[in-house]
Amino acid sequence: MSRAQANLLLLAVALIWGSAFVAQAKGMAGVGPLGFTGIRFLLGTTIIAPLAWREWRQLSVRQARPAAADALAIGALGVLLMLGAAFQQIGIISTTVTNAGFLTALYVPLVPLLGWLLLRTPAHWSVWPTSIGCLIGTWLLSGAQGFDLVVGDLWVMASSVFWALHVIYVGRISGRL
Prior knowledge:
By secondary structure, this protein is mainly alpha-helical. Helices cover 80% and strands 0% of the residues. α1 crosses α5, α4 (68-94) runs antiparallel to α8 (151-173) and α5 (97-104) runs parallel beside α8.
C-alpha cells in the first residue's frame, strides 16, 4: 500500500468515525438507545457472520473448536463492546454529538492509564504525548469550546472506560486466539 493510499484510508476512517455520532443521534429517534444498539449489533452480525463462517470452514477441526476459556474470553469481549456501545448511545440522548465525539476519545489516554493501573503494564513514553495530542486534536475538531457537564456526558465518559477496557482486553487475549 502506498503512503497516499494509507493516508486516504486514515482520512476515510476519521470521516466515518466522526459522522457516526450524528447518525447515532438521528438513528435512535424511533427505537431508543438500547433498541438502536441492538439493531446495530444485529446488522453487524448479519454482515460479519457469512465471512466468519467462510473462515471457520477453512480451519481444521482442532483449530475450529475454541477452548472453554477462549469462549469465555470472547464472551467477555462482547460484553465490554456492548457496554461501551450502550452507555454511549444512552449518553447521546442528553448530550451533543460534539461532546459525545470528544468524550469518547477519552478512551485513547485511558488505554495506557488503565493498562498501567490494572495490569501494571507500563506504556512506552511516546504514548503519553500522543494521547494528549489526540485529545487536543479532538477538542479542536469539536469546536475548542468549554462545555457544561450534563448527565449524558457522564454516560459517554463511562462508555469510554468500557471502550478502553475492550482495547486492553483485545490486546491481552489476541495472541492466544
